[in-house]
Amino acid sequence: MTNTQTGGNEYDTRMRRAGRLSSQHSFAAEFLDFYTHIAAFQKALRANIAASSGLKSRSTPAADLRDPIDLTVLLPHFRGFLSTIEQHAQPALGQAAHQMSLLPSDSSVASLEAYWEHAGKYDQQVGAFAQFLARAFLQPYAEFRSAQIPKAPMVMTVRVCPLCGARPLLGVLRPEGDGGKRSLLCSFCSEEWEFRRIHCPTCGEEAEGKLPVYVAEQLPHLRVEACDTCKFFLTGVDLTKDGHAIPLVDDLAAIPLTLWAHKHGYARLQPNLLGT
Ligand SMILES: [Zn+2]
Ligand SMILES: [Zn+2]
């Protein structure tokens, strides 16, 4: 089995990046250190998912990202996940994980299945802790599936993930020629798709004057990409300014930008895993 299938390298890279950012930015250290524990669990879970899918290689892989999840693979790891969270999270979240571990397993099944169906589309209906637990636990499965599904050619203004229909978590600028090529990163399955640079992914605004960008001094490669028409913002990670950035991880350190955005009346389109 290759590392691409198990995702091992990817999680190692995320953990290394979180450690590095944590040592540089004390204001985000607590979140990043907690994230490292989550990522270590996710790495092991992803390897398990890949191994069990290898065993069932004759079965056809899912054609649609939101096809029902195989809970026979996932459920045996759920208690271990909850105890990881209980050990490392802040007390309130740790308590929520503990409460969930006391529930009968059909209740966990129901909440995981409901999250799988609606994640990234109607998240507001789920409480913050319940959402966090399902999201952190199912993320490796969503990413595994996303990696298996063949990609169709893209139009440049699709505002939700072409694989799973979830809203974007982040904007990403990758170096291309003299500038940067923009894409959006899915909040659920981590698929990345190309997107026009001057275009609001929430309401479609295209007037440059209505799309202010804010950059904080401490983190010059991160930006608030706001929209004065719909008042939503997306955090952007500019890889032309820092090629070592890992968008999913660097976003967890973007606390000064989120504060700025909220102070100026912009709401985040989709929260990150830790709600920073
Ligand atoms: Zn997606
Ligand atoms: Zn807008």
Compile the SSE list and pairings.
Layout: H1 3-6, H2 8-24, H3 29-55, H4 71-74, H5 78-88, H6 91-102, H7 105-118, H8 128-148, E1 168-176, E2 179-186, E3 192-194, E4 213-215, E5 222-226, E6 232-238, H9 247-250, H10 255-263, E7 267-268
This protein binds zinc ion (2 copies).
The site of one zinc ion has 8 residues, from loops.
What does this structure look like?
- The protein is α/β, with parallel strands linked by helices and 276 residues long.
- The chain is 45% helix and 13% strand.
- It has ten helices and seven strands.
- Strands 1, 2, 3, 4, 5, 6 and 7 form a seven-stranded mixed beta sheet that branches.
- The longest helix has 27 residues.
- The radius of gyration is 18 Å and the shape is globular.
- The chain starts with a helix and ends in an 8-residue tail after the last strand.
- The model has no long low-confidence stretch (mean pLDDT 91).
- The structure holds zinc ion (2 copies).
- One zinc ion (ZN) binds next to loops.
- One zinc ion binds next to loops.
Summarize the amount of helix as a percent range.
Answer: 40-55%
Summarize the main sheet. Answer: 7 strands, mixed
Rg, Cα atoms, Å: 18 Å
Q: What coarse outline follows from CA principal-axis ratios?
A: globular
How far from one another are the termini?
35 Å
Computed structural class: alpha/beta
Question: Could you give a short description of this structure?
Answer:
With 276 residues, the protein is an alpha/beta fold.
Key words describing this protein structure:
seven-stranded mixed β-sheet, 45% helix, binds zinc ion, 276 residues, alpha/beta, globular, single chain
